[in-house]
Design a protein that fits this description.
By secondary structure, the protein is an alpha/beta fold. The protein is built from eight helices and ten strands.
């Protein structure tokens, strides 16, 4: 079985300009003394630019904590994190807010759409808040149109969330994450609230955003089918990256997870 000390070699180190996010010796602990719980234990990881990475592991493995720390949603106890060339660790609140607004997109289980806005207004809301123009014929407008076409929402832009299905609402959330053209998008169980058909549609859109738009996506999931859409799967256990898989399939991911479950119960 892979130990924490030997796990570091599992994650290849890419050239810096090929890396959208990276963590070095990241530890996240809660509490002190006898109540201290270590959610992440000296994790090193590089997230390759223009690729789809899935993070998997049993409950309590640290997968969501790793994503939240990489995205600047949670602080680290030790170690350093970068988004592109910008070090996240140590940023002040205003700098961190600006970084998340300009360089990071988020997709969560809850769609987080404003019910009084139509689909287009929800998609462009982050850009509108940031004061970025979208009405001209410039690059932002061309990108927005490409994103809307990629997620298949052209005929639903005037509809409010209450007039859309769950799958369509999540597509709006995906388009919103893509619209500002962030350096990286983080998804925390983005298909967790969807039926299998709607989930497959959203995963297909995420895959297309990588293949056709060059987006970088990091997705936490417990679903081998969802992980099968990724280019690479990182497996966490007890706060450590214990394995990884390239070019996964649903069956290969499920088989790997069963092996982990067997080791944990033996």
């Amino acid at each position: 079985m892979t130990t924490a000390a030997s796990a570091a070699h599992l994650t290849p180190v890419f050239e810096q300009n090929d890396v959208a996010a990276r963590a070095r010796q990241v530890t996240k602990a809660y509490g002190t003394g006898e109540t201290r719980v270590t959610a992440l234990n000296a994790v090193d990881v590089d997230i390759e630019r223009g690729r789809f990475t899935a993070i998997m592991g049993p409950s309590g493995s640290g997968k969501s904590t790793l994503m939240h720390c990489l995205a600047g949603l949670d602080s680290v106890s030790e170690g350093r994190i970068w988004i592109g060339d910008t070090e996240v660790t140590g940023l002040k609140d205003k700098q961190l807010t600006r970084l998340r607004r300009d360089k990071i997109g988020f997709i969560f289980q809850a769609f987080n759409l404003l019910p009084t806005l139509n689909a287009l207004e929800n998609i462009t809301l982050p850009m509108d808040i940031a004061g970025r123009r979208r009405t001209s014929g410039g690059a932002d407008r061309a990108w927005l149109e490409q994103v809307i076409d990629t997620v298949g929402l052209s005929g639903r832009l005037g509809h409010r969330p209450g007039q859309l299905s769950g799958g369509q609402q999540q597509r709006v959330a995906v388009a919103r994450a893509l619209a500002a053209r962030p350096e990286i998008i983080f998804g925390d169980e983005p298909t967790g609230n969807l039926d299998s058909r709607s989930g497959a549609e959203v995963l297909g859109f995420l895959r297309r955003s990588v293949d056709e738009l060059g987006q970088t996506i990091v997705m936490v999931t417990h679903d081998p089918v969802a992980a099968g859409h990724a280019d690479r799967v990182l497996f966490l256990a007890d706060g450590v990256i214990v394995d990884e898989m390239h070019n996964p399939t649903a069956d290969s991911v499920l088989s790997r997870m069963r092996r982990f479950d067997g080791k944990r119960t033996s």
